[in-house]
Amino acid sequence: MSWYLVRQGDFKLITWGTGTEVRPLLFNMTADPGEMHDLAASMPDVVTRLTALLRQQIDFPSVSQTVADYN
């Protein structure tokens, strides 16, 4: 499955596939550089903002679907 990430400020978002198959992960890279504590459930506004930022750069759902169709 394809995966994508975006970082803005202290936060890093990782998402897979079209964004619906697996829930995204969110980390505060300053407070948690080892990425041990997923903040996605407690910070849905940041997840939404970073997902929108990622979609501005790449249509990851479409790319993932194309990759899946190719296989």
Description:
The structure is a single chain. The chain has 71 residues and is α+β, with helices and mostly antiparallel strands. It has one domain: 2-Layer Sandwich (Arylsulfatase, C-terminal domain), CATH 3.30.1120.10. Helices cover 35% and strands 23% of the residues. The protein has helices spanning 44-57, 60-70; strands at residues 3-8, 11-16, 25-28. A three-stranded antiparallel sheet has the order 1-2-3, with helices on one face. Strand 1 and strand 2 form a beta hairpin. It is elongated and about 40 Å long.
Tags for this model:
single chain, 71 residues, Arylsulfatase, C-terminal domain, 3-stranded antiparallel beta sheet, 3 strands
CATH architecture: 2-Layer Sandwich
> Describe the biggest sheet?
3 strands, antiparallel
Give the helices and strands as they follow along the chain. EEEHH
CATH topology: Arylsulfatase, C-terminal domain
